[in-house]
Amino acid sequence: MARDVACPLDQCRWQESSLDALLIVLTQRNVRFSADAMGRAARAWHLRRGSIATAWTRASSGIRLALEISRIIPRLHEIVARTMTLTPSSNRVAAPQSARAARLVAFARLIRARARLISALVLLSFGLCHLASHITLIVSVPLAEQVLGSLMSFWRTELGTYLLATALAVHVLNALWSIYIRRYLRLPVWELAQLSLGLSMPPLLMLHVVSTKISDRFLGTVSDYHSVLTNQWVVTPGLVYLQFAAVITLWVHACIGLHFWLRTKRWYPAWLPILGTLGVLIPSLALAGYISGGNQILREVQNPGVLASIRENAHQTPETIAQVWHTAFIGLTIYAGLVLLPFIGRGVRGFVYRMHRLPQLTHSNGRTMAMLPGATVLETLRANGIPHASVCGGRARCTTCRVRVVDGQTQLPPPAGLEAAALARIAATEGVRLACQIRPNSDISVMPLLSADSRAADGLVRGAMEGSERQVTVVFIDLRGSTMLGETRMPYDVLFILNQFFNEMTKALVATGGHYSNFTGDGLMALYGLNTPDPAIGAAQALHGAREMLARLDQLNAQFKADLKKPLRIGISVHFGEAIVGAMGPPGSQIVTAIGDTVNTTARLESLTKVYDCPIIVSHHAVQAAGLNLVGHDLQRATVKGRVESVEFYALKTVPELAI
């Protein structure tokens, strides 16, 4: 097998997949070595207990099956992984992989992401069942035993056991694979904490798992709350601290994962106080129950014969206890080898990479840095100390890491899998990619589209709203005589009337496809055509919106007829042209708005409604874009402040029906 994947360094071309295939072989040999070691232990025990060898062989086959299943995902990922051909003689990087290979890579990453999430939820479900039964220890040990039997009934079946073992293998091996596949280990604090806590859980839980589940299955012991609490509180009191550390580590790891999975959901902020309360109560009550149960056992064993009775009922002998410790030591040794394996692979890979010319990443701040083959843009930026947004931790969920590829777009494979789904969700424009998903194999230049301190809500901003020059229809609405309204009425009355006015105008915008942009004191600014396939459609919608606003204003005047000396009047201007559109404003309070000459011209046109004594002024550009026939209406021309050229427009008393 070594000949099949061997890759001499003196060859002219080197395939990255060859090195990774070699590491897969090493992983297989490690697992086989582990299985052989466990098999030898089982044969040794067979000399003492005749039934153990048969049971262990059957269980060992199940464990190997679970490990093989869990390894399908990284093997599939590696089989179809991006192959990077480096040529020392020419110092050039080969052409990008084919579209088919890119789709396969994206599919493999999608499978791996789903497997990671599903395995985590399975393990969390098992942990919740365990902690829920611990809580009832506050009442009594017998009650907790009954609750444990009910909650753990599924997990004690063959199906539940295999499901749990497979989920554990998938989750642990996925964590190890994520260490290897990363080209840099410079991670955010929360991600580093989650990874470290996750890797520390198997050592913390190894002895507990071996002394209960494995011992019951293969050594004939019977574990219940009495025997487990006796071992941890009476026989070996130091295990109490180990259990405390295990529960806290498991729960913090799970909460970090849940938070960064759910915080991209729209409903999560509303539920966060409730979920946060549960996140504190569940482990606190579980540990309180554990302490209560331990104290109950300490009181019981003071009676003569109780300790011996508990040990006898659990079928615990000095031989079984020694076998449990020996098996736990073997398990820890195997796990330590598995943890070291990805770091060894990273070292070998890094040595080979340093022998070749690497692709260059150019950031919009002017910095240029080398990229390791297979590294994402996000990893490279973090490794070089450049802050970049990534709320979800690089899992293609939040889209806050989005970038615009300025140069090198044609060398990238098209979006697929998780990236394609995320970009489609925000209707991203061409050239926008996720920094956490693209792995360039040639020189590339990128420009971040969101600030480095962006939050989960910023990831919901649709594509092209990060800031782009585009054609849009701008509408300004201004309430006439608002100053006199404030001089003749109480402040509360003025606010009530203004709020009713803005409420009706906003309803008109929503009904006609407009976007409320800015509040301007006694008026507002709106944008049309943000989400239409043709920007010209926005111009027709804007004229429709103007008709709707005038109609709603008439209804509002009828409602306040008895309270107003004069009816409310408004001035509306509509203009179509290019503007810079995007989310603007201070962090946490950004709004989607527009700036530029089109916006300034629209504001100046609105002021001309007073000069021409008309409710609406529509620019000639907006009329043409909307396809409105205004034969018989005079085309006006005026010079507005801030522009050298005059602006052509129509001053209208009403909007013709054809505008609808």
Features:
single chain; 660 residues; alpha+beta; Ubiquitin-like (UB roll); Alpha-Beta Plaits; 3 domains; eight-stranded mixed sheet; five-stranded mixed sheet; 16 strands; 13% strand; disordered N terminus
Describe it for me?
The chain is α+β, with helices and mostly antiparallel strands. It folds into three domains: 2-352, no CATH class; 360-460, Beta-grasp domain (Ubiquitin-like (UB roll)); 468-659, Alpha-Beta Plaits. It is 56% helix and 13% strand. The protein contains 19 helices and 16 strands. The protein has helices at 2-5, 16-46, 50-79, 99-135, 141-151, 158-181, 189-218, 225-235, 239-262, 268-300, 306-313, 318-353, 377-383, 417-425, 482-488, 491-511, 535-559, 597-611, 620-626, and strands at 14-15, 85-87, 92-93, 360-363, 368-370, 402-407, 432-434, 444-448, 468-480, 514-519, 523-528, 569-584, 591-595, 616-619, 636-638, 647-652. The strands form three sheets. Strands 9, 10, 11, 12, 13, 14, 15 and 16 form an eight-stranded mixed sheet that branches. A five-stranded mixed sheet has the order 5-4-8-6-7, covered by helices on one side. It has a three-stranded antiparallel sheet with strand order 1-2-3. The relative contact order is 0.07. Mean pLDDT is 81; it is low at 1-59 and 72-96.
What secondary-structure arrangement, pairings included, does this model have?
Elements (H helix, E strand, L loop, with lengths): L1 H4 L8 E2 H31 L3 H30 L5 E3 L4 E2 L5 H37 L5 H11 L6 H24 L7 H30 L6 H11 L3 H24 L5 H33 L5 H8 L4 H36 L6 E4 L4 E3 L6 H7 L18 E6 L9 H9 L6 E3 L9 E5 L19 E13 L1 H7 L2 H21 L2 E6 L3 E6 L6 H25 L9 E16 L6 E5 L1 H15 L4 E4 H7 L9 E3 L8 E6 L8
Parallel strand pairs: 4-8, 12-14
Antiparallel strand pairs: 1-2, 2-3, 4-5, 6-7, 6-8, 9-11, 9-12, 10-11, 12-13, 14-16, 15-16
